[in-house]
Amino acid sequence: MKTSFCIFPIIFGALSMTGCDNPKSKQWYKEHPDEMNQQYKVCESSGNDSQDCRNAREARFELRQDNAKVPDLN
């Protein structure tokens, strides 16, 4: 009986940490740069590698590449 009281909180905690929210798409983050930067900072500080973090990271990379200065090699 005592063991079940110890195991239940562990199982409940693990299930609640998995998260039920739908990750935002890379395109959504590109259209909402403020939220993208906020999510990026949270992901970098926590080390999280969820789908949401990956999408924010990829959107940030793509936006930076779109706005990158093209070097003149001539």
How do the strands and helices of this protein lay out in sequence?
Elements: H1 2-18, H2 26-31, H3 33-46, H4 51-66
Overall description:
- With 74 residues, the chain is an all-alpha fold.
- The protein contains 4 helices and no strands.
- The termini are far apart.
- Residues 12-17 have low confidence and may be disordered.
Helix content: over 70%
How many whole angstroms does the radius of gyration measure?
19 Å
Question: Structural class, from secondary structure content?
Answer: mainly alpha
The helix/strand order is HHHH
First CA to last CA: what distance? 78 Å
Q: What's the average pLDDT? A: 82
Proportion of strand residues: under 5%
Helical element count?
4
Ranges where pLDDT stays below 50 over 5 or more residues in a row are: 12-17
Q: How can the largest sheet be summarized? A: none
- Count of DSSP E strands? 0
Query: What is the approximate shape?
Result: elongated
Task: Produce a short descriptive summary.
The protein has helices at 2-18, 26-31, 33-46, 51-66. The protein is 72% helix and 0% strand.
Keywords, please?
single chain; 74 residues; mainly alpha; 0% strand
